[in-house]
Amino acid sequence: MIVAVLCALAVGATPQDTGMLDVPVYRNEAYQVSLPRPFDDWVFSAGRAPRTTTVLFHPRRAPLRDQLWGALVLMSFDAPVPLEAVADQRLQETWQSELGRSFRLLTRDSLSLGGLPAVHLVMAGAVNRLAVDVEEYVVAHGRDLVILQFRYPRGLPRDSIAAGYERSFAGLRIGEAAVAATAAPQPVVSEGDDEVNRALAGSPWRLRAVEARVRVDPGGATFAVRMEVANDDVRPHDTLVVAVRTPWVIDSVRGPTGRAFAGARGTRVGVRLPQPVEALAATAITVHIRLPDASLGPGADRAPTEVIAWPADWLPVVQPWLDSLGDPLPPSVARRTTRFELPEGLAAVTAGRLAANLVVGGRRQMAWVADEEPFTTPGFVIGPLRRVLLRPGPLATVRVWASSSGEATPSGRVAEIADAVVGAWVFFTRSFGRLTFEDVEIVLTDISPPRVSGATLFISPLASLDSIRAAVARVWWGQTVRFTGPGAGWLARALPGWSAAAIRAASDGDSVLQRVVREGEAAGEPFAGLEAARRVGGDARFRTALRALFLEHRRRSASLADLRLLLGPEAGEALPALPRAR
User: Is 381:296 a contact under the CB 8 Å cutoff?
Assistant: First the structure.
């Protein structure tokens, strides 16, 4: 019976324009399910799918071929619902079949909704040449299965649709429980960045290459970013939205011919291209950006001797970095080149490998290249930097940069920091797996806590050894393996923290690890949950799971659900419960 039901699930909810039910709430007493409609002008309609009860909800006067609709699918099993098998079947037999070569899986998370086990899926692709994002919640209620589906056609404004779907999700009841009752709060996002992110929702553009140019003069710094963007839709497009995050602003945007687009100023701008870009073709734009307070770059009345540190993300974007529910999306894989033109006494360090460093006509020109690594924080440091230590090693070459002005960092401290980085690099390579980086750049600058971009570490000379080791761990956890979905922020903090504590345990014994964990719990550090999972599942299984998480997801995205699956049911339950953020 279960096999037959799974085969029935392989058939999508086929729409039909008959039997409209104009009621504010759909109720099914047999399944103990009720669902409010998103908007007053939407109706419920019967859908066709074998062995299921399928109900579509859609605008009363909009044709279903426009893909602006949701679906509620109900069915029963003769045993407890095999939730993971159902989710696999939906992905492989329904969505990969319907979306074909355009199919992309954006999110797969295991979560709890109203105390019921569920799987959350987000797909992207094209149905009948119409680009659409599809979000599904697959929920097990004993032997009953409930599937709630939302569709977001990319050609329509997403904000209002998402607001309506939010009302439906918040009002969905299964049995006696409202599924959104245990939802966690959304992550904190500045109002400006949240508005920018929502403006990019549904963008058909994908970043393919970036070339940033930074010029520093006594009067300040200028920033120009050339972006090669590809049309990922199945239809031509002649408009795009480009945006920057707070506090950066856009000064101007220029097209492929160098002509400036009128009115292109602010944190986000929409531009109309000279001609449509065909499906899978690409075009190029150049974005000039700045900080409103001109805080980057020396003042006009003094020499450029200050260290300019910007370790956060500063590059313009053409895609959202959070999904409609506030969870991180995987960044685009794009080749990035950053060129610096500086006074001779300055140098610049950013993520990637140093491809050029020469002085021409009293100006220093440096180029850093990152090949297809979508670093989460492509920061940089500019200043009177010089390389104070070069240490070749069996795994990577370590270079330490420090300021040549002001009070110099003692050579003994420089060596201690380099030794901590090399030791952590060797330990994590042995524990998790080898990286593709051949060079590690350490920039000693006044910044706390340490920041990481690719294999470039921005560290304060006064940083503790534990914080330095945790920063090195973020090259594995956060840069090489990038976290998405619910729990992404928790993983990005917990795994590096636990990894740093594991180094101390390896040298000083397990009792030290337990003490560090207790101290971390008292300080609110999240890695105590990982240690609980290790105690439940055993040290060997836990370390095998972490190694598998890295090897299976390096240069890809991973979620809390992936770690739970590798740990197994018992150890996975020891991790903190992180329900779907709404």
Answer: no
CB-based contact 16:46 (threshold 8 Å)? yes
The 8 Å CB, 24+ separation contacts for 39-42 are 39/164, 42/164
Superfamily per CATH, domain 186-374 = tricorn interacting facor f3 domain (2.60.40.1730)
Long-range CB pairs of 172-176, under 8 A, 24+ apart, other chains included: 172/33, 172/34, 172/35, 172/36, 172/148, 173/32, 173/33, 173/34, 173/35, 174/31, 174/32, 174/33, 174/113, 174/114, 174/116, 174/139, 174/141, 174/146, 175/32, 175/141, 176/32
Task: Please determine, for residue 51, whether its predicted confidence score (pLDDT) is greater than 80.
Answer: no
pLDDT at 184 (0 to 100): 32
Q: How far apart are CA 535 and CA 516, in angstroms?
A: 15
Least confident of 251-265, 447-461, 493-507: 251-265
**Spatial distance between the Cα atoms of 200 and 241, rounded to a whole number of angstroms:** 7
Q: How far apart are the first and last CA of the chain?
A: 35
Task: State whether CATH 3.40.50.300 applies to domain 2-182.
Answer: no
Residue bearing the bigger pLDDT, 385 or 404: 385
Q: What is the DSSP track for 509-523? A: -HHHHHHHHHHHHHT
Q: At residue 547, does pLDDT exceed 90?
A: yes
What does the pLDDT look like over 339-368, one tens digit per residue? 999 998 899 999 888 999 999 988 999 999
Q: What CATH architecture does domain 384-467 belong to? A: 2-Layer Sandwich (3.30)
Mean pLDDT for the chain overall: 81
